[in-house]
Specification:
The chain contains 15 helices and six strands. The protein is of the alpha/beta class. The protein folds into two domains: about 200 residues, no CATH class; about 150 residues. A four-stranded mixed sheet has the order 3-4-6-5, with helices on both faces. The protein binds zinc ion.
Length: about 375
C-alpha cells in the first residue's frame, strides 16, 4: 500500500511514493556506481528490479500506480529467473510524461539531464550523460527540447531510450494514457517496454550499436541489410504485452480482441489486406510510414505462430542463449528448428488461410478456461 505525497519544486514536482509496507522489501535508495545515493522515489513492489520514477507534475497518481504495478508484474514474468543479468537490467529510470503537457516534459528533461550528469557521467559503462542528448555536444538537440519532446512539438511516445551497457542505466520513457478508459494501455505498454529491457539484458558483451541490433534480429534480417526491421524485436514485445496483460487480468477476450484487431481492424486500411497485397514477407517491413504498424502487429502474429509450433518456453531459451550462440540466425534455427527465412515464408502461407483457421491458432496458445 502506498501513501502518496506530492513535493513541488518550482514548476516541477516529482511524485514521491512513501511506503507503508508489511514486507521486508521496503523501498530504499540504492547506491549508484559512484557511491552517490539516488534521490528519486523507487518502485516498492519490486524485488530485484531497481526502478525509479521521474514524473511530470501533471501526471495522475493513478497513472503512476499503474506503471508501478505493471513493472512488478513484468519482473515476475520476465526477470525472476537465475539467468537474469541484473547488472544490465538495473537501474531503470521511468520518465513518466504527460502527453498533453509539452512544457512539463521539457522541465522534466532538465531534471533528468541534471540527474544523469551527476550519476551517469563517469566513463566506460556509465557514460549515459556523454552518450546521450543531454550532452549539448550531441548534434540536433536543443537543451530541454529533444529527448522527452519531439521536433514537431509533441511529447515523446513510450520507448526504451538507452543502452544500459554503455549508459549505466535503462531509460523507459512512459507516455501518459487517458484514465480510466485507457488503463489497459498502461498495462500493455509497460509490459512491452519491460520486454525490450529483457531482450537486451540477455546480451552482456559490449558491442557496437550496429552489432547489437544484428544479434537481436533488428538489423540484417530484412531484405536490405542496412535497414532496421521490427518483425522480431517488436513482434515479440507486442505479442507478449497483449498475452500477459490478458493473462494477468484473466481476460481472455481481451487477448482475442487485440489479436483479431491486429490483422482485421481498420487502421487506415486493414493490415492483413495491406500485407497480402504487398507481396513481401513480414521481415521485410521497416519502420517507414505504415510499414511500421504491419511490422509490429503482424509481427505479433508471427510470434503467436511460432509459439503454436514450438511453445513459449523456446522463445525464452532463445533469448537466454542468444549471446552464447553469437548470431541471430544460428540461434533461431537451433531453438525453433527452422531457418528464419523459411519460417517467415511458412507464416506468409498461414496468413493466406481463411480467417477462422487463422483465429483458431489463438485457441491453442491461450485455451478457453474449462
Ligand atoms: Zn517496442
Amino acid at each position: 500500500m502506498g501513501l502518496k505525497h506530492i513535493h513541488k519544486t518550482l514548476y516541477i514536482s516529482v511524485i514521491v511514493l512513501l511506503l507503508i509496507s508489511c514486507s521486508s522489501n521496503q523501498a530504499s535508495n540504492t547506491v549508484s556506481p559512484d557511491n552517490l545515493t539516488i534521490d528519486l522515489p523507487k518502485i516498492d513492489c519490486a524485488n530485484k528490479i531497481e526502478a525509479y520514477i521521474l514524473a511530470s507534475d501533471t501526471v495522475s497518481d493513478e497513472g503512476i500506480d499503474l506503471i508501478t504495478k505493471w513493472v512488478c508484474v513484468a519482473e515476475r514474468l520476465f526477470f525472476d529467473k537465475p539467468s537474469t543479468n541484473w547488472e544490465i537490467v538495473n537501474p531503470i529510470y521511468i520518465a513518466v510524461l504527460d502527453r498533453n503537457n509539452l512544457e512539463s516534459a521539457m522541465q522534466l528533461e532538465k531534471i533528468w539531464c541534471d540527474h544523469i550528469k551527476k550519476y551517469h557521467n563517469s566513463g566506460k559503462g556509465n557514460n549515459g550523460y556523454d552518450n546521450g542528448k543531454c550532452n549539448s555536444k550531441q548534434r540536433g538537440c536543443n537543451f530541454g527540447l529533444c529527448l522527452f519532446t519531439q521536433k514537431e512539438g509533441r511529447v515523446t511516445g513510450s520507448s526504451i531510450s538507452s543502452n544500459s551497457k554503455r549508459d549505466g542505466f535503462n531509460l523507459f520513457i512512459s507516455n501518459s494514457h487517458d484514465l480510466p478508459e485507457h488503463s489497459d494501455s498502461y498495462g500493455y505498454v509497460t509490459l512491452h517496454e519491460m520486454f525490450h529491457i529483457y531482450q537486451y539484458s540477455n546480451l552482456t558483451k559490449d558491442r557496437s550499436y550496429k552489432d547489437e541490433k544484428k544479434i537481436a534480429g533488428k538489423l540484417g534480417t530484412g531484405s536490405d541489410p542496412n535497414v532496421d526491421v521490427p518483425w522480431w524485436v517488436e513482434g515479440n514485445a507486442v505479442f507478449f504485452s497483449y498475452y500477459y496483460y490478458a493473462k494477468e487480468m484473466q481476460d481472455r477476450e481481451y487477448f482475442i480482441d487485440k489479436m483479431e484487431s491486429s490483422l482485421w481492424a481498420e487502421w487506415q486500411g486493414v493490415l492483413i489486406d495491406k500485407y497480402l497485397k504487398s507481396e513481401k514477407t513480414i521481415n521485410e517491413f521497416t519502420w517507414n510510414g505504415e510499414e511500421k504498424k504491419i511490422g509490429y502487429e503482424i509481427g505479433a502474429w508471427f510470434t503467436a505462430y511460432l509459439i503454436d509450433k514450438v511453445g513459449e518456453e523456446k522463445i525464452h531459451k532463445f533469448y537466454s542463449n542468444l549471446e552464447a550462440e553469437g548470431d541471430f540466425e544460428i540461434a533461431f534455427k537451433k531453438y525453433f528448428g527452422i531457418d528464419y527465412k523459411y519460417a517467415v515464408n511458412d507464416f506468409d502461407l498461414f496468413l493466406r488461410k481463411p480467417k477462422t483457421e487463422i483465429m483458431s491458432l489463438l485457441n491453442r496458445i491461450y485455451p478457453q478456461p474449462k
